[in-house]
């Protein structure tokens, strides 16, 4: 049967893909880590996610929305690790060690995470939507730190952690784990 003889043309089955939106968010993080924010496009995200280009605009109203979702996911993942480390610390000494491990192993342990962090910070300097992502991330970090440190100390320590991360990401001579340990211990004396 064809459309010409009055019969219905069978419609192509629509592919059910409930994980597509999540894959697009994950793909956006991959593209940002590999190409930077400036090299992140709908087309490149779709290619990495292995989905049709139109899926990016079907699931997200704009590239900005997709990037905000991706950075929200990234920040929430890092904040969750931070919270878990601080929750596992039995006392202040263990909390200090947890912070050292967080910086040395979690934040600085992956070039991908370093790039994502720096890309988010730079973009947030100009984009209020992404600045809100960093503000939420900082609030969660401070909340985790306040399990073991007063609010002023937690705020300063959070700033030190961010500074250590940025310094190591951008330096041609990054700090050693021993230097990071010393900096955190000095601040918390």
TrEMBL record:
It comes from Nonomuraea harbinensis. InterPro entries: HTH_TetR, TetR_C_31. PROSITE patterns: HTH_TETR_2. Residues 41-60 bind DNA. The keyword Transport does not apply. It comes from the Bacteria. This is TetR/AcrR family transcriptional regulator. Residues 18-78 form the HTH tetR-type domain. Pfam families: TetR_C_31, TetR_N. Keywords: DNA-binding, Transcription, Transcription regulation.
